[in-house]
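Handout for the seminar on molecular recognition.
Each group receives one record of this type.
Step one: identify the two inputs.
Step two: read the structure output and locate the region that could contact magnesium ion.
Step three: write two sentences on what you found, then compare them with the reference statements printed after the record.
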Amino acid sequence: MTTPLRSVYLSVVIPVYNESDNLEPLYQRLTTSLDKLDKSYEIIFINDGSQDNSYARLNELQKRRPAQIRVIHFNGNFGQHMAVMAGFERVRGEIIVTLDADLQNPPEEIPALIQAMEEGHDYVGGIRKKRQDTFFRCYASKLNNWLRYKMTKIRLSDQGCMLRAYRRSLVELMVISKETSLFIPAQAYSLSSNPTEIEVRHDARESGASKYTFYRLLRLNFDLMTGFSLLPLQIFTVLGLLTAALSGLFVIYMFLRRLIVGPEAEGVFTLFAILFFLLGISVMGLGIVGEYIGRIYQEVRRRPRYVIKEVVEHQTPDSH
Ligand code: UDP
Ligand code: MG
């Protein structure tokens, strides 16, 4: 077991959370298309605390191809991006490809990613052709992509697509950053020197349901915004200055009215409306500041980002 791991050409990293029925078809399609490449490869599955049968299924797959498949079991659910990062910490490949376990990212597209990498890029992002998700998610994500680009200047045409390829050096940079709020495609983009994007097919989920609720998507986007931009804070400062200036004018106006018209009690509700509006803005600002402080807090605590329960792999020297 102490034999050092040999390096391989390609590492495929796949986060798995309650995907037990997808694993067999994924295994079949993935190994078929990787075998065709005629390059050495490994597949790393990260079980992100699944409560279904994924644990046993993954171990069973590992037994079928012990030299090529490695499985990392987490102690609980730490999120897709943490799972991918745990895979990144252990990859042996020159080129690293990430994909989802639900077969929304067809494994048959991997050769196209690799071809783009071989043309000299250190990062290849996927753009989903004819995205197979709900109408709401497609449009929400278009809007979100636009907003994110304006705020962070990170050009990801399709931030939700995890079918991507990275050069090993880029992955190593991400691993040493040790950030607690992760959004891997964006981080990779900001570190890469020669990124590109290609179109990839996108299928409907093979089985099971999406693990992202509206709330989780929102959290993920906060991670993205706060992780790569101070713009929310700056917008808030400008907004504060503007409202202070307007309120100042309003005070002068009221004062003059008091002198000219005399005491008056009308307009109390208008005043309330204005007050509530300003209060709303202040609370929102506190929230934005809180989003940053919360992340700073997590960062300084330096707790482990995830806990690994078990790693299933055979460290044979002749893995191909
Ligand atoms: N996933 C994970 N941990 C989570 C949520 C999701 O490892 O907490 C995995 C999931 O098993 C899948 C991938 O991340 O392989 C993408 O998840 P999903 O298909 O639910 O997201 P969507 O395609 O709806 O964006
Ligand atoms: Mg999916």
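Reference statements: The mean pLDDT is 90. The longest helix spans residues 268-301.
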